[in-house]
Amino acid sequence: MQSSTLLFVTISCTGTGSGGFTGSGSGGNGLGTGDASTGGTTGAGLGGSDAGSVGPVGHFGVHPGGLHTLADLDRMKTQVAAAAHPWIDDWKVLLRDSQAQNTYTAAPVADMGANRQRADADAHAAYLNTIRWYVSGDTSFADAAVRICNAWSSTVNTVPSGTGLVGLPIMSFALAGELLRNYSGWTPTDFARFKNMMSTYLYPSAHSFLTNHLGSCISYLTTSWDAPNMAAVLTITTTTASSSTTMPSSTKR
Q1: How far apart are CA 149 and CA 103, in angstroms?
Q2: Chain-centre distance of CA 177, in angstroms?
Q3: Domain with 2 in it
Q4: 117 and 85 in a common domain
Q5: Is the dihedral of CA 211, 115, 108, 224 positive or negative?
Q6: Which of 240, 248, 228 is nearest to 170 (CA)?
Q7: Predicted confidence band at 51 (pLDDT cuts at 50, 70, 90)?
């Protein structure tokens, strides 16, 4: 994820103390804050206050969704509208990001692993445009995200080749889909095709890497390879669920 997005979703920035890092959190995925020493990392973690609760068999009650809860998204929207700092500063950084433009054009290929870097860029563009839509209310950005997702879902026709790093675009597409699924401009037919891409072609790739590690022992590769594939598996589950876990019930499919 690019720096503009990391900055944008930061809740508060502080830089106090003489050394080390301290942090606190509340709830299963609650708000976490942390003070850092001079020269260290500053900022706060982003999360919802909802804990996971299981309802009827096969259905979750309340859980965080993909990357953002509805409360997270509404906080972004409110703070940007109020031109509050630091949200408005990071919003302006996001507006300058080349991948956050409604003119962005995807370049899909049948085998996502054949051009993982471009797939990752396109997936990230879909996510950033979705965020711009929700925060600004400008549907042209949702339309751009839909075009990107539709381009890939109508082209991908095989499980990705290559290494476990293809988990990066898989994760990003799933995160974008979880938020975008509530946009009325994404037709049920197109969304169904997107979910089929995720479950039929992309999930097997992430699952295979996590269980086989390219035929090597589990410690052969670093956790930076495991993390996106774990996130991909989890987010595909929420994205392909029967209804959204993030948006208001009035917009759920």
Answers
A1: 14
A2: 8
A3: 1-96
A4: no
A5: positive
A6: 228
A7: very low
